[in-house]
Design brief:
By secondary structure, this protein is α/β, with parallel strands linked by helices. It is built from nine helices and ten strands. The strands form two sheets. The protein has an eight-stranded mixed sheet, sandwiched between helices. A two-stranded parallel sheet has the order 7-10. Helix 6 runs parallel beside helix 8, helix 6 runs parallel beside helix 9 and helix 8 runs parallel beside helix 9. The longest helix is centred in the middle third of the chain and has 19 residues. The protein is globular.
Length: 271
């Protein structure tokens, strides 16, 4: 695979400022990106589960912190849990801004594909090897789904379940031309080729909150990239909802992003 990023394209990337707090170097061709902000014990639990299934033996783990102040990302502790890199976003923006930082870093390091899993320990990392296998076979976009055969959804809030099944996934399926079933969650994988495509152009300031997730689910199939859903396990705790999306205002914002993505508002200019 050609790992060289054309200078003209790279110079056009819009990336929030960030600091590299830990980097032990690239050991594998795949990178696991974990966006985190104040996840407390959840990020530790996730990293322990990843170690249990040996993820560090097949991929490098990079955390992108959005500005945690809970003391959960102590560098020596991360090293002991097989983390290869820790980035701290210092610029503006939320989730999509974090992802732009980490994806740019990973591509600059020469990774051939990126798997993203949320740092709130809702997703089971046992699926990661299957994501990597799909990337190896030429799939460009792998989406986790709790709603297809073999998937498991536990304690999903009713409002979230209804919105995904009857609004979010159907709309993205209709407008993208690919049948999606689980479009709001961030457990997914992308090929290097897709992320570097100027027809995709994910490194733009328009992607600030949750826009990038909806946009890529719409844009990738439209451009003919190979997409695939894989069954995964997604468990919400019984007594708390680890999410950064507020009940009303946040969900309304997600729906607005959905409509804008489906009608091409985030497409690169002239594309």
């Amino acid at each position: 695979m050609n790992l060289i990023i054309p200078t003209e394209n790279r110079n056009n990337w819009q990336i929030p400022s960030f600091e590299c707090k830990l980097w032990l170097g690239r050991k594998h061709q795949w990178c696991i990106v974990i966006p985190v902000i104040n996840e407390g014990r959840r990020i530790g639990n996730l990293l322990a589960r990843m170690t249990t299934v040996g993820i560090e033996k097949i991929a490098d783990i990079v955390i992108i912190d959005g500005g945690s102040i809970d003391g959960s990302l102590e560098i020596e502790g991360l090293k002991q849990q097989n983390v290869s890199g820790m980035l701290l976003k210092t610029g503006a923006g939320k989730l999509s801004a974090q992802l732009r930082c980490a994806y740019a870093f990973a591509l600059d390091q020469g990774y051939e594909g990126i798997i993203t899993i949320d740092g709130n320990d809702k997703d089971d990392p046992e699926a990661i090897p299957r994501f990597i296998d799909a990337l190896n076979k030429g799939v460009d976009f792998v989406q986790a789904s709790r709603f297809i055969a073999g998937g498991i959804a536990e304690n999903t809030p009713t409002s979230r379940d209804i919105a995904i099944r009857f609004i979010h996934a159907p709309m993205l399926s209709l407008f993208s031309g690919f049948r999606w079933t689980d479009t709001t969650q961030g457990f997914r994988a992308y090929s290097r080729k897709m992320l570097l495509d100027t027809e995709v152009s994910p490194f733009r300031n328009v992607f600030n909150t949750y826009e990038l997730l909806a946009y890529l689910s719409y844009r990738a199939p439209k451009l003919g990239y190979r997409c695939l859903e894989l069954p995964t396990i997604r468990r919400y705790p019984k007594d708390e909802v680890p999410t950064k999306i507020s009940a009303f205002k946040g969900n309304l914002s997600v729906l607005l992003v959905l409509f804008k993505a489906c009608f091409g508002a985030y497409n690169p200019k002239g594309k």
